Amino acid sequence: MRARAVRAAPRPAAADRTCDADLAASVLDGLARPQKSLPSRFFYDARGSALFEQITALDAYYLTRTEIGLLQRHAGDMAALIGPGASVVEFGSGSSRKIPILLQALEAPAAWVPIDIDHGMLTHSVREMQARFPGLRLVPMHADFMQPVGLPAHRLSANRVGFFPGSTIGNFRPHEALAFLRRVGATLGRSAAMIIGV
After folding, report:
1. What pTM value is reported for the model?
2. With b meaning 16 or more CB within 10 Å and e meaning fewer, what string describes 124-161?
3. Terminal CA-to-CA distance of the chain, rounded, Å?
């Protein structure tokens, strides 16, 4: 048997070897589970957000069309229950296609607080909403809504409503959904309301 010389591949630069610690820990945790998983927050960079918007336009993806239809039919009823001067906190605002239907139905809404993990999508949505609702206070928050989020209470009215469409809650395991709802309750306050797409 003859030995052969093997040329070692060049070692990657230090920047190439580093990995986001949160991503690495989440991948390892997800692969160690009996049912493999990866938190969806890693999908929503600029490319992921754009792909999701394309998915929602597919004929097979009925959720977006159905929720828009429900909002168009029942936003007036929702607004009557919510009352005047509401601050609407949207968890995972994305492209913000649905929230204008509710905001138009509300009586003198005080503020819209979009929370999203994709900074680019958040900036784009806020620009569009500024043009559409010039008198509305916009309080964008670049954050992961699956973590505790502190609202700037001094900029919001006491009448608060959470908005969480898209049936996203159906993607959570039961304990994750419960933890999310507890965090949202603590964030919004005891007298707040919540609209959830399921």
Report:
1. 0.78
2. ebbeebeeebeebeebbbeeebbeebebeeeebbebbb
3. 66
The per-residue pLDDT for 63 is 86
Please state, in angstroms and rounded to a whole number, the distance separating the CA atoms of residues 181 and 184: 5
Distance (Å, rounded) from C-alpha 82 to C-alpha 110? Answer: 12
Measured CA to CA, the distance from residue 103 to residue 184 in angstroms comes to 20
Contacts of 67 (CB under 8 A, 6+ apart): 98, 165, 166, 167, 197
Report the pLDDT value the prediction gives residue 41, as an integer from 0 to 100. Answer: 64
Cα dihedral 168, 171, 176, 179 in deg (nearest 10): 10
If you search the block for the tokens 């994750």, which residue do you land on?
Answer: 176
Distance from C-alpha of 160 to C-alpha of 188, rounded to nearest angstrom:
6
pLDDT along the chain (198 residues), means of 10: 46 52 78 78 67 76 89 97 97 92 97 93 94 95 91 93 92 91 93 93
CA distances from 34 to 66, 137, 156, 162 (A): 33, 46, 43, 33
Q: How far apart are CA 148 and CA 154, in angstroms?
A: 18
DSSP state of 171: G
